[in-house]
Amino acid sequence: MKLLEDRIRQDGTVLPGNVLKVDNFLNHQVDPQLMNQLGAEFARRFADAGITKILTVESSGIAPAVMTGLHLNVPVIFARKHKSLTLTDHLYTAKVYSYTKQVNNDISIDRRFLSPEDRVLIIDDFLANGQAVQGLLDIAKTAQIEVAGVGVVIEKRFQKGHKMVTDAGIQLEALASIAAFENNTVTFAED
Amino acid sequence: MKLLEDRIRQDGTVLPGNVLKVDNFLNHQVDPQLMNQLGAEFARRFADAGITKILTVESSGIAPAVMTGLHLNVPVIFARKHKSLTLTDHLYTAKVYSYTKQVNNDISIDRRFLSPEDRVLIIDDFLANGQAVQGLLDIAKTAQIEVAGVGVVIEKRFQKGHKMVTDAGIQLEALASIAAFENNTVTFAED
């Protein structure tokens, strides 16, 4: 999506360790008009996928997920992050390791919001190692619901999340796909 | 806002201790169409307030804040919650006590996203004791920016947050204002 690639070139910063900082429009300060355009684009790409619900993880996934839900006219569920859970009878939970924060979290979704008839679309801001997406896939498996697609605003294609999702046979749509970082600039994948 | 009051009557649950559970449309599962309508209503009420930015706190404030930002055409900043912070030179921080979770958190906003010319609107899902809003007011004070308004989806008018905001001379708009809980049902304020 050219609009997004241009915005990343203009406003993104590449930090040491292949970290792309986009906190001025995506994950701390948020540009609502851009989120609306991203949501419309996700909705276009998954228009025929029969989506009934969108899943994301708090907090950075919420803005693009809610805009996608607006355009697909389906509810959005954001999984909650916890240190660790004791009483979990009413929750679906999964373990998620954060590479950036180097901590394990549980994520959870209330059981009453998922039913076997659901076909869900997972939306998140970033796909790198794919830990958050994997956690949502784990929850979907436990809840016996079908994951019809994964949509991410930005993917680092060279990290393992991309392969994990496509190897699972799930439609993956990244609105910007980073092929490499070179000399503190971003190279986008061509296709 | 009648639409929202009807939705609370229909889908909300009153739990012991005056807790209103609205996690099926506001703060776990989210109804994007409703969020869009709430955002449009906040935008209407603050149309003449000269807002340049919206502040909220992760996570439940993000959906209504981003929709309000869409309609007011301004950026949204969501403050991050932390256990406690050590390196904070580049951040504005404030302490926030959560009554529901009974923990102290720091919230923070990167300094480069606020400038003295800003006139901000604070948006959040709930106003009860007003701890989160107070934290954002503290940050605004440190950053020397003017708070032109506070918009909350649901307020419990009988708790101290309402008085705290209005006593500070700040325009407060609650889209649903709960006057009391009686026999596990909600009574809304008349005005």
From TrEMBL, chains A, B:
<dbReference type="Pfam" id="PF00156">
    <property type="entry name" value="Pribosyltran"/>
</dbReference>
<comment type="similarity">
    <text>Belongs to the purine/pyrimidine phosphoribosyltransferase family. Xpt subfamily.</text>
</comment>
<feature type="binding site">
    <location>
        <position position="27"/>
    </location>
    <ligand>
        <name>xanthine</name>
    </ligand>
</feature>
<dbReference type="InterPro" id="IPR010079">
    <property type="entry name" value="Xanthine_PRibTrfase"/>
</dbReference>
<dbReference type="InterPro" id="IPR029057">
    <property type="entry name" value="PRTase-like"/>
</dbReference>
<feature type="binding site">
    <location>
        <begin position="128"/>
        <end position="132"/>
    </location>
    <ligand>
        <name>5-phospho-alpha-D-ribose 1-diphosphate</name>
    </ligand>
</feature>
<keyword id="KW-0808">Transferase</keyword>
<comment type="function">
    <text>Converts the preformed base xanthine, a product of nucleic acid breakdown, to xanthosine 5'-monophosphate (XMP), so it can be reused for RNA or DNA synthesis.</text>
</comment>
<dbReference type="GO" id="GO:0000310">
    <property type="term" value="F:xanthine phosphoribosyltransferase activity"/>
</dbReference>
<keyword id="KW-0328">Glycosyltransferase</keyword>
<feature type="binding site">
    <location>
        <position position="20"/>
    </location>
    <ligand>
        <name>xanthine</name>
    </ligand>
</feature>
<protein>
    <recommendedName>
        <fullName>Xanthine phosphoribosyltransferase</fullName>
        <ecNumber>2.4.2.22</ecNumber>
    </recommendedName>
</protein>
<dbReference type="InterPro" id="IPR000836">
    <property type="entry name" value="PRTase_dom"/>
</dbReference>
<dbReference type="InterPro" id="IPR050118">
    <property type="entry name" value="Pur/Pyrimidine_PRTase"/>
</dbReference>
<feature type="domain" description="Phosphoribosyltransferase">
    <location>
        <begin position="47"/>
        <end position="163"/>
    </location>
</feature>
<keyword id="KW-0660">Purine salvage</keyword>
<feature type="binding site">
    <location>
        <position position="156"/>
    </location>
    <ligand>
        <name>xanthine</name>
    </ligand>
</feature>
<comment type="subunit">
    <text>Homodimer.</text>
</comment>
<keyword id="KW-0963">Cytoplasm</keyword>
<comment type="pathway">
    <text>Purine metabolism; XMP biosynthesis via salvage pathway; XMP from xanthine: step 1/1.</text>
</comment>
